[in-house]
Write a structure and sequence with these properties.
The complex is a heterodimer of chains A (282) and B (286).
Chain A: H1 7-15, H2 22-32, H3 34-43, H4 46-61, H5 67-74, H6 79-86, H7 93-113, H8 117-122, H9 125-132, H10 143-147, H11 153-177, H12 190-207, H13 211-230, H14 240-259, H15 278-281
Helix pairs in contact in A: 1-3, 5-6, 7-11, 9-11, 9-12, 9-13, 12-13, 12-14
Chain B: E1 3-14, E2 17-28, E3 30-35, H1 42-49, E4 57-62, H2 70-78, E5 80-83, H3 95-105, H4 111-124, H5 140-152, E6 158-162, H6 170-183, E7 188-193, H7 196-202, E8 205-210, E9 213-218, H8 220-225, E10 231-234, E11 243-246, E12 252-255, E13 263-264, H9 269-276, H10 279-285
Parallel strand pairs in B: 3-7, 3-8, 5-6, 6-7
Antiparallel strand pairs in B: 1-2, 1-4, 8-9, 10-12, 10-13, 11-12
Helix pairs in contact in B: 3-4, 3-5, 4-5
Chain lengths: 282, 286
């Protein structure tokens, strides 16, 4: 051994006060250094030593984090939040690849047609769909266990929403960078994306996690078709007043969502398309 | 019996059907079996008691906590272990990671303490050796045991198990019975099952549910006693019997009101259960 745990750190370790990363370093060193173990025994009571060994044992037994989970922890997310996020269905590679493919094809079509309309129409729908499939009985295999857990359902929903929105907005942002010729106009999807996602979530307790985002998606498409048919040039949702309207809708839906947060605490027994059909429920 | 779970007038409709119809029951420490044919409302009752869905009417308390308020529901959930009928898994999680995930949902945020708890429950269900294996690579029986381990995280006082032995081979079922019997020591376990033998071997009390209503509540011995003097043997199926089937001896076992001079047999729990159900409900069991 070329080094030993400092006396001060050893005392803190014995008291259970030593914080990571010094704690991990001391844990690892103590497994291999008989001299430090003997010193530790001298400065601590037997119960504390046993606790320390149990902690070390549990730490060594813990599985390696997956790619996504490890990345989140490196970005400063707590380990328990990272595990909750890693279980978000939509964070799976297949979903991210599908969204990337859709965006790449859309960018290609925009370049060919020399109009950003298709991209601006599609980009807000992707985060809406992503959030819709990240929570709820339809696509979350552990939904039933999560809904009866003491962790508040709204907290889990918000964690996942942030993760999905973060991933979705980054991908949309990258696609926007691939359309430099349209300037800030190519960013006009951002506020509608937030408005649609917040509205979809706010309607979920009433309509269920499938119908609510589906209706919001249909409403958005209808609005765009009407705007396209009735106005020349840039469709209304992507003009300055349209963007202001989207911001207002996002804020109002966000307020409503917070007001309805307790409704995410149970599965609505009568909401349509909750994934529990009458037959399977009884 | 010290009452730990008490429900009064629980009613829940799905469309035009009453899945639960004025269900009242009390449970105490130990294992209580919930028997009933398909569509009896067993899963609905378990989901209501586990606070997964709210009832339309009625109320209940678990270990003194009323889920009618957000705070009461939260306290109840802190004391609840729930194994749903079809427990879902994240296939890429290992057994350890999955149970760890459930432990986080149960508010265990301290990594060291949580991992110790995960190891404890995996050891309790005898799965320590495969804790690193992906869920998708585990057998059906092992997955059920992982789900039971997840339900046991945090040493809950009320354990709700929805048909945990379905799909298990006889050896796995025996293993599972041992685990449930251990789990029932010092806590309240409500076990939904189709298998009367599970109830006979495991349960201190039994509740029979049919058509969304409680048809019987008592001990397995009391349910068996309902069939005393109402089970008889005959060479052919007795047309007057409510139910009858040929046994391995070649003779028919009949359940119902025996004719005079019938060769009476010792009743079983299953006989008592069949006599508790109505005609249509018995067909659902068959």
């Amino acid at each position: 051994m070329t080094w030993h745990v400092a006396e001060e750190d050893l005392c803190a370790y014995a008291r259970g006060d030593l914080a990571p990363p010094l704690l991990w370093s001391a844990d690892t060193h103590l497994t291999a250094c008989a001299e430090c173990r003997a010193r530790l025994a001298g400065v601590s009571d037997p119960v504390a030593v046993t606790d320390g060994w149990e902690r070390l044992d549990a730490e060594l037994d813990a599985p390696r984090r997956g790619l996504c989970e490890g990345l989140l922890v490196r970005c400063g997310v707590t380990d328990h939040s990272a595990r909750l996020l890693a279980a978000t269905p939509v964070l799976r590679r297949s979903w991210l690849l599908a969204v990337t493919f859709v965006l790449a094809m859309t960018v290609l079509m925009v370049r060919v047609a020399d109009s950003p309309g298709l991209f601006l129409a599609l980009a807000p729908l992707l985060p809406l769909a992503g959030v819709a499939v990240s929570y709820g009985p339809v696509l979350d295999p552990t939904y039933e266990m999560a809904v009866v857990a003491p962790m508040h359902g709204f907290r889990l929903l918000m964690l996942r929403t942030c993760a999905v929105l973060g991933a979705g907005l980054v991908l949309n942002g990258l696609a926007t960078l691939a359309l430099p010729g349209y300037g800030l106009r190519a960013l006009a999807w951002l506020l509608p994306a937030l408005a649609l996602t917040a509205t979809g979530l706010a309607l979920t307790p009433r309509l269920g996690p499938v119908l609510a985002p589906a209706l919001v998606g249909v409403a958005w498409t209808t609005l765009l078709l009407i705007a396209q048919a009735t106005t020349e040039g840039t469709p209304a949702p992507f003009t300055a007043p349209g963007q202001l309207g989207a911001a207002v809708v996002a804020a109002a839906a966000g307020w409503l969502l917070v007001r309805l947060r307790d409704r995410f605490d149970t599965t609505p027994a009568h909401a349509p398309f909750t994934g529990f059909t009458h037959g399977s429920a009884v | 019996m010290t009452v730990t779970v008490s429900a009064t007038g629980l009613t829940l409709r799905y469309g035009g059907t009453r899945a639960l119809d004025d269900v009242s029951l009390t449970l105490g420490t130990g294992v209580t079996g919930l028997l009933g044919p398909n569509g009896a409302g067993k899963t609905t009752l378990l989901r209501v008691l586990a606070t997964a869905v709210p009832a339309d009417r009625g109320s209940f308390t678990v270990l003194g906590h009323d889920p009618g308020s957000a705070a009461g529901r939260q306290e109840l959930r802190r004391r609840l272990g729930y194994l749903p009928q079809n427990p879902g898994f994240h296939p890429d999680f290992s057994a350890f990671e999955f149970v760890d995930y459930v432990a986080i949902l149960k508010e265990m945020t301290d990594r060291g303490a949580r991992h110790r708890e995960v190891r404890r429950v995996l050891e309790a269900v005898d799965l320590s050796d495969v804790r690193g294996r992906r869920m998708k690579r585990l057998s059906g029986g092992m997955r059920q045991r992982v789900a039971l381990a997840a339900a046991l995280v945090g040493d809950p006082g009320f354990l709700v198990l929805d048909e945990p032995t379905v799909g298990l081979d006889p050896e796995q079922r025996v293993r599972f019975r041992e685990l449930i019997a251990q789990a029932g020591e010092g806590r309240t376990v409500l076990l939904s099952t189709h298998q009367t033998e599970d109830v006979a071997m495991l349960c201190q009390r039994v509740v029979v549910l049919a058509g969304g209503r409680v048809r019987f509540e008592g001990t397995p011995a009391e349910l068996t006693a309902r069939a005393a003097g109402r089970v008889w043997s005959s060479a052919e199926r007795d047309p007057g019997a409510r139910a009858g089937w040929r046994t391995g001896t070649g003779m028919f076992r009949n359940v119902g009101d025996p004719p005079e001079g019938a060769d009476l047999l010792e009743p079983t729990l299953e006989d008592g259960y069949l006599l508790t159900l109505g005609d249509g409900e018995r067909e659902a069991v068959a």
